[in-house]
Structures are given as structure tokens and as C-alpha cells.
């Protein structure tokens, strides 16, 4: 007999002969919440009826919620009593029992079933007030707001804090960072082009991104992680011309100096990396997959979990590996093209008058609206600037409809759509909302500037994306009503725009590196004071868009903005940040192939920047909208690659040198 049948047989007489859907749902929720059987729950109900009075207690939706609260209160009192006993016994010892931030859940075993708020000290007046056995009213009820019944799941009132109106923003158009300011800023051409001035080419195998998600196998995961170490081992051996005998197992006790290649990890599964907790994880081929603690002493290092390093040293004691040298990973070459290929691309930038004009590119990253509305005012302002300047390329990185946006998470769009929106609430989908709020403005933009090329890079936080893992596949254009000038690419993507190679990933790797990075300078030397440039160089050195492993857990990330009337307390669903959502079996899709990109775009919540790092133009455009106000975007103006007579005569491939001929401004929207 199912739980539903058992509950109906036991509780139907108390409910007047049959259970309503509300009562049945609440009873099922209590069974799951407290892990009870139907018979045990009925025994507790009979005790509750006797306590409250048989004649006055009828099983309806209001009573069953009060019954659930009574059970939760009893469980909380019991847990607090146990916590008090544990605390008293621990006081006899020197070290006190660790507590989990106050409250009755001493060891975190109740898993959200009791409140984490410490019990307040009850005054005499409060005790007298407690003699009133009526259900206490919440503060929201006293202030005239609608209150839920007596239940631990209390709606969160809407946060009234409003950000600055977008039209009232200050310092709009201010340039906060720039490089190559000697190059003229972008401006509208005197004579608009008659055709697109760029040619796009993906440098990745796009069909491979359509893999089946949520199908990871442990064996495949371990092989992928192992192969990455072996790949770097072969790379180090070839670059430094080392014999096989130079490599060894760093976990094996030996007085001989060896070279070891492995992955940086923390010695505790959930610990934070620091100088004392750094271990090297070896591959099965070189070290049987063992881990060994690293000691650097006076050797400088710049580490994070997941980084592949090559170290030279000894393990005399058998307990730790003493590093005497950290061997730099050989850099990838910069991209190059033949003079003939460059001439073809330069011809696209040459107007009817024979003069070559710079290529205009705008780069922006979501969110594109604040947490208080869905006006997308910042996106409209960006598109207006792209239209006025007749920009050649517009790069838009997600999220667009952000899963962490409180309105999107609530699913209640009715009050936030334009007044003229023709959507049927009962039939509308997220695709319809996207067509209205995003595709519509893009359609109007390409009608005004038909030669513009728009590149959309999805994000894991996009509510319209059906691909829930990273690396992330494209989303379909047709259901979203996007114009033909829009090219939806994968996340990440290596994309050729004429001769230039752009590397773009909406996964916030810089924030992950900032939280987990641990570094030390060598004696007599100093690490770069530019933290953002140093973090970016780590990405470049590792030849991967997201070299961090493991990433931050969702519980450790900042929680999304609260939803109005969101339920909290025991049994309520806790909203968490989306997180990295890595599919390790397909991480090879995020590796760089053969060459480094000319332009590396890594959107992040960290301060926006533009920097030249190791011959690459590295850009964090920031977010176009912050939670409560406007953000930033990046504007690029790229001159054609000038060729000397010697380069033309030689006919050999020449470097693109984009960092010398691209002006980049980070601008307030």
C-alpha cells in the first residue's frame, strides 16, 4: 500500500471523510521532512489532538500546518537540549565543542531541519507575553502585510532598496581604462559600408559541444585528468630536451634529484589552499596517482588548485618533496598569417576612396539589466551606441535572461514586461520573453545597420539554454527569433574575426583564481603587483579557458538576490548560485589549439580591465549591469595590419601584433 493510501485510511476520519489536496500535500511533506512512516505520523497526530482538545481540532489546511510547526518546535527543543548537555560536558575539558555558528544544530546533522538562529535570552515581559496561547503574528502582519499561517516557512518581504535609475546614472561614457590611446577612437564612417567587413571562422569543432550532459563516468573523468598531466609531461620533456631518466616519482623516497610533473591540490578535500597544504598529484604513469606534500622554502611559486606544474627537487624523507626549482611551462606561439592572407583581410577594411578604416568592435557581458527590473535599459543604450557608430562587430556574452535574477527565478514576468507586450501568460515560454526583450532590440539594430555582425556567447546562467554543463553548446537561433546577422557560438570559443583570433569564455575563471590563488616570491625577487595581469597569465600558461580544479562549490559562492515572498526555513528550497558545472569528460574542448589567441576576453565580476599580457590583448569588460546600477563595456578600434616590403618579399607568415594596433577603452555605460 502506498503512503497516499495509508494516509487516507488513517487521517480521513479526522478530516470529515476525505483528505483535501492541501492537507494530503502537507502530510506528505511532513513524512519527507521528518522521515516518518504514516503510522508514526498518525500517532503524533493523535497526541497533538489530545493536547489541543479533541472537540476543537479538525484536520484542515490551517491545522495541519500548525501541527507541522509543533513537530518542528519539538525537534528543535530536543536538539537544543542535547546541545546543552554536550556543551556542559565539553566545558570540563580545555577545548570546547565546536559549534556551527550558534543554534541547536551542533554538528550540522539536522541538515536545515532546525533554525540556525541562536535562541534569544527571554525577558520576564516576554515570558508573560508567551502565556498567550494564540498563534503569534509575524511582524509583517503587524505592519499590515499579508502573513502566512503559523509555519516556519515565512515569506521574505520584498526588498524595497532601489538602485539608481538608469537615466540618472552618473559619468556615463567615462573611460576608466585604455590602451594605445594614440589610435583614434571609433566614430561613424563618412560613407557606410555596403557589406559586412568581417569574416568569421570557428577554430573549434563545434559539433562536439552537443554532447549529452549529466552522463559523466568516473573512469572517463580520471582518464581526462590523468591525460592532461601526461600531455604536459611530454611538453616539458620536449622543450627542455630531458631524458626519460630525469623524471621520477616525487612520492618515492630517494636522494636523487628528479623532475616531477603533476597537478596542484589541497591536502584536505574541502580545505582552502595555502602554503602548508599544497600537495602535488601525480599521474598513474609517472607516480601511480599518489600525492605528496610540496615544500618550497626560498623558491617562488604562483599556484592554484588544478594548475599543472613541473618541479625539480628531492624527497629524502619520503614524507615531502623539497622543491629546488619551478620549471616554467613553455608558452604557445602567437598566431601568424601570410602576407597574402593579410592583404585579403585588409581589402575588406578599404573603402571606395582607397582608404583603410579601423575595424570597430564592442564587447559587453551580462547581466544586461539590474535585479530590480527587466527593462534592459543598459542593453538598449549599448545598441544605440553601436547603431550611431555603425560598429562592425558586436560581441554579447551571456547571461541574458539570468537564472539568478529574482524575477526570472520567480517566473512571474507579468508586471515586468512592456505594456504593449502581446504574450498570453498561460502559454508564454522563456523563449517568448527572450524574443520580446532581447531579440526585438537586435532586430531593430540590424535593420538600422545591416552590415553589422553580432556574436552571442551563451552562459550557464542563461535560462533559455538547455545545455546545463560547461563546456557549453550553442542555443538554437530559430526559436528565439534572432536575425541572420547574429552568430550564436559555443562557450568557450576560439573564433577568427578576419585574421585575428578571439578567445572568449563566459565562465568566470578570474574570480575562481582570485579566491584560490596562493603565491610567494623568490628571495631577492618580487612578483608582479598587478594581480589581475598575474591571474590572466596563469590562464595563458595553462593553455585552457578554465584550468581550476576543483572549482568552488555552489554553497561557497554568493547567494542570488532574494525573491519577493520566497519561502525560507525548514523544508524550503535553498537557492544557490549556478556555479561552474564542469563536465570533466569534455574539458578538452576548452583547451587552446596550436596557438594563443590574439585577444582574450574573460568576463568577470572583478574590476573591468584591459591589459597586454605576454603579447595578448586581455579584456575583462565587466558586467553591463550590476545588481543595483549600470556597469561597463569595452570598445575596440583595430587598425589594419601594415606590411613592410621585406615581409611581402619574404612571403612568410608574420605575427598579427594586435596588441600594437588595437585601441581598447573600458567605458561606463
Automatic annotation (TrEMBL):
User: Would the keyword Nucleotidyltransferase turn up in this protein's UniProt record?
Assistant: yes
Q: Matching InterPro entries, A to Z?
A: DNA_pol_a/d/e_bsu, DNA_pol_alpha_bsu, OB_DPOA2
Q: Name one GO biological process term.
A: DNA replication initiation
Task: Show where the DNA polymerase alpha/delta/epsilon subunit B domain sits.
Answer: 361-611
Region ranges (Disordered): 128-155
Q: Which domain of life is it from?
A: Eukaryota
Q: Report if keyword Transferase is assigned.
A: yes
Q: Name one GO cellular component term.
A: alpha DNA polymerase:primase complex
Q: Which locations, inside or outside the cell, does it occupy? A: Nucleus
Q: What does this protein do?
A: Accessory subunit of the DNA polymerase alpha complex (also known as the alpha DNA polymerase-primase complex) which plays an essential role in the initiation of DNA synthesis.
The family assignment reads: Belongs to the DNA polymerase alpha subunit B family.
The name under which this protein is listed is: DNA polymerase alpha subunit B
Amino acid at each position: 500500500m502506498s503512503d497516499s493510501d495509508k494516509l487516507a485510511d488513517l487521517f480521513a476520519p479526522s478530516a470529515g471523510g476525505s483528505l483535501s489536496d492541501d492537507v494530503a500535500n502537507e502530510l506528505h511533506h511532513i513524512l519527507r521532512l521528518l522521515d516518518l512512516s504514516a503510522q508514526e505520523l498518525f500517532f503524533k497526530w493523535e497526541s497533538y489532538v489530545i493536547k489541543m482538545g479533541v472537540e476543537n481540532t479538525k484536520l484542515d489546511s490551517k491545522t495541519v500546518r500548525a501541527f507541522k510547526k509543533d513537530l518542528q518546535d519539538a525537534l528543535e527543543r530536543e536538539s537544543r537540549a542535547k546541545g546543552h548537555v554536550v556543551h556542559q560536558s565539553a566545558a570540563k575539558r580545555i577545548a570546547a565543542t565546536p559549534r556551527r555558528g550558534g543554534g541547536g544544530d551542533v554538528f550540522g546533522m539536522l541538515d536545515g531541519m532546525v533554525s540556525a538562529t541562536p535562541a534569544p535570552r527571554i525577558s520576564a515581559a516576554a515570558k508573560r507575553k508567551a502565556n498567550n496561547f494564540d498563534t503569534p503574528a509575524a511582524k509583517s502582519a503587524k505592519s499590515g502585510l499579508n502573513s502566512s499561517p503559523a509555519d516556519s516557512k515565512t515569506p521574505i518581504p520584498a526588498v524595497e532598496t532601489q538602485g539608481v535609475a538608469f537615466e540618472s546614472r552618473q559619468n556615463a561614457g567615462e573611460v576608466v581604462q585604455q590602451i594605445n590611446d594614440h589610435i583614434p577612437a571609433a566614430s561613424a564612417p563618412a560613407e557606410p559600408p555596403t557589406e559586412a567587413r568581417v569574416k568569421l571562422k570557428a577554430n573549434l569543432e563545434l559539433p562536439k559541444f552537443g554532447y549529452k550532459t549529466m552522463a559523466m563516468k568516473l573512469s572517463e573523468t580520471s582518464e581526462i585528468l590523468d591525460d592532461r598531466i601526461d600531455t604536459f609531461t611530454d611538453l616539458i620533456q620536449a622543450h627542455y630536451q630531458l631524458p626519460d631518466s630525469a623524471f621520477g616519482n616525487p612520492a618515492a623516497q630517494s636522494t636523487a634529484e628528479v623532475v616531477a610533473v603533476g597537478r596542484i591540490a589541497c591536502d584536505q578535500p574541502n580545505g582552502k589552499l595555502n602554503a602548508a597544504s599544497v600537495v602535488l598529484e601525480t599521474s598513474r604513469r609517472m607516480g601511480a596517482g599518489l600525492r605528496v606534500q610540496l615544500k618550497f622554502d626560498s623558491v617562488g611559486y604562483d599556484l592554484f588548485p588544478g594548475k599543472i606544474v613541473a618541479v625539480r627537487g628531492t624527497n629524502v624523507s619520503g614524507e615531502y618533496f623539497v622543491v629546488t626549482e619551478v620549471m616554467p611551462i613553455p608558452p604557445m606561439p602567437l598566431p601568424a598569417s601570410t602576407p597574402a592572407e593579410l592583404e585579403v583581410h585588409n581589402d575588406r577594411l578599404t573603402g571606395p576612396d582607397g582608404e583603410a578604416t579601423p575595424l570597430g568592435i564592442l564587447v559587453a557581458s551580462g547581466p544586461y539589466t539590474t535585479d530590480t527590473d527587466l527593462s534592459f535599459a543598459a542593453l538598449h543604450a549599448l545598441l544605440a551606441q553601436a547603431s550611431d557608430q555603425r560598429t562592425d562587430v558586436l560581441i554579447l556574452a551571456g547571461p541574458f535572461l539570468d537564472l539568478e535574477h529574482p524575477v526570472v527565478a520567480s517566473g512571474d514576468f507579468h508586471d515586468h514586461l512592456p505594456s504593449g507586450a502581446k504574450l498570453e501568460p498561460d502559454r508564454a515560454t522563456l523563449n517568448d520573453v527572450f524574443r520580446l526583450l532581447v531579440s526585438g532590440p537586435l532586430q531593430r539594430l540590424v535593420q538600422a545597420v545591416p552590415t553589422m555582425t553580432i556574436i552571442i556567447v551563451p552562459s550557464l546562467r542563461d535560462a533559455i539554454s538547455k545545455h546545463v554543463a560547461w563546456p557549453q553548446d550553442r542555443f538554437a537561433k530559430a526559436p528565439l527569433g534572432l536575425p541572420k546577422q547574429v552568430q550564436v557560438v559555443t562557450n568557450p570559443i576560439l573564433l577568427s574575426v578576419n585574421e585575428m583570433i578571439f578567445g572568449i569564455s563566459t565562465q568566470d575563471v578570474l574570480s575562481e583564481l582570485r579566491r584560490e590563488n596562493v603565491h610567494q616570491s623568490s628571495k631577492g625577487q618580487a612578483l608582479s603587483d598587478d594581480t589581475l595581469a598575474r591571474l590572466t597569465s596563469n590562464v595563458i600558461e595553462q593553455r585552457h579557458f578554465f584550468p581550476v580544479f576543483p572549482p568552488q562549490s555552489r554553497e561557497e559562492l554568493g547567494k542570488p538576490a532574494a525573491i519577493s515572498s520566497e519561502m525560507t526555513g525548514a523544508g524550503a528550497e535553498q537557492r544557490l548560485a549556478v556555479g561552474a558545472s564542469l563536465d570533466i569528460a569534455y574539458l578538452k574542448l576548452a583547451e587552446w589549439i596550436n596557438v594563443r589567441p590574439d585577444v582574450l576576453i574573460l568576463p568577470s565580476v572583478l574590476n573591468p580591465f584591459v591589459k597586454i599580457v605576454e603579447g595578448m590583448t586581455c579584456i575583462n569588460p565587466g558586467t553591463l549591469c550590476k545588481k543595483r546600477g549600470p556597469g561597463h563595456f569595452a570598445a575596440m578600434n583595430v587598425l589594419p595590419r601594415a606590411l613592410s616590403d621585406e615581409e611581402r618579399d619574404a612571403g612568410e607568415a608574420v605575427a598579427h601584433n594586435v596588441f600594437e594596433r588595437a585601441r581598447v577603452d573600458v567605458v561606463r555605460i
